[in-house]
Amino acid sequence: MLDKDLIITQLSFASAEEAIRFGGKLLFERGYVKECYIESVLERERIFPTGLPTEPVSIAIPHTNSDCVIKSSMCMMVLDEPLKFSQMGDADIPVMAKIIIMLAVSSAEGHLEFLSNLLTILSEKTLLERISHAHSKDEIYELMLASGECFKI
Amino acid sequence: MGKKKVLICCANGVATSTMVSMKCKNKFKELGILAEVVTCTSLEVKGKAKSYKPDLIISNVGTNIIVPEGIPVIYGVNLLSGRGAEETWAEIVEKLTIP
Asked: What is the pLDDT of residues B57-99, one digit of tens each?
């Protein structure tokens, strides 16, 4: 589920949209999603925002329905400066996300363990802190693998 | 106390509702609460609530959803972010343990 080439650190973008386009393009180029994925995620993000005020840094988990997904995966982007998203379930609350995890979730049942493990990670303060300060994809990859067997491809 | 039913909805019915449902299953097991968990999209929630008749709905798209009267709706995003999660669990447990 975890493709090291889809972990990118030290990124900076002018907007959340720019970041989503960047991550979406990577997922597309690596064959995990169809071309419609990017626009679909952007539209979904406008209607159903995905910012989560996790601690110590906030995150966003942009995603869309499985129609545009070929194979479940995720693209993790660690930003130099947080970007403004809106909080899931309450668009009036801004969330300054330092880590963006774009999810590509297929309708197959196999993604359950992956999502469950990802959630555990999202609620681990120390791990999020370490990811947010990581300088390389290798560092994050190791941290993630140490946190859950299911992240192995 | 009979088996309770929990309906969890999110925008797409695949990602965050699944995450919260896994969390709920673990928590219910830990606390010895007998409850079944089902997920759906925010578009399906009204119809699903009518047919499934849950004791509680957990919504990841805000509490401003249209559901049949009398079914409590709890905002589930705290369970994802961890911030305020204890309060949200307490609320969920309370709704599921009232006779």
From this structure: 999 999 889 899 999 999 999 999 999 999 999 999 999 998 6
pLDDT at A140: 93
Contact by Cβ (8 Å): A57, A95: no
Are B80 and A107 within 8 A, CB to CB? no
Mean pLDDT confidence for A101-111: 81
Mean pLDDT of A126-142: 93
Q: Structure pTM?
A: 0.92
Residue from the list A103, A112, A122 with its beta carbon closest to the beta carbon of B80: A122
Name which residue leads in pLDDT, B12 or A136.
Answer: A136
CB contact under 8 A, B62 and A90: yes
| Angstroms from B50 CA to nearest CA on chain A | 22
Please tell me whether the peptide bond between B54 and the residue prior to it is cis, using omega within 30 degrees of 0.
no
Number of residues assigned to chain B: 99
The proportion of chain B whose per-residue pLDDT surpasses 70, expressed as a percent, equals: 98
Nearest-Cα distance to chain B for A131, in Å, is: 16
Is A89–B61 a contact, with Cβ atoms under 8 angstroms apart?
yes
Structural domains counted in chain A: 1
| Contact residues on chain B for A66, CB-CB shorter than 8 A | 12, 14
Best residue in B81, B83, B88 for a mutation probing chain A (most A CBs within 10 Å): B81
The yes/no answer on whether domain B4-97 falls in CATH 3.40.50.2300 is yes
In terms of C-beta distances under 8 Å and separation of at least 24 residues, what long-range contacts does B43-48 make, across chains too? Answer: B44/B9, B44/B13, B45/B7, B45/B9, B48/B7, B48/B9
Delimit the domains of chain B by residue range. Answer: 4-97
Q: Is the pLDDT of residue A79 over 70?
A: yes
Query: Which residues in chain A have their CB less than 8 angstroms from residue B11's CB?
Result: 44, 47-48
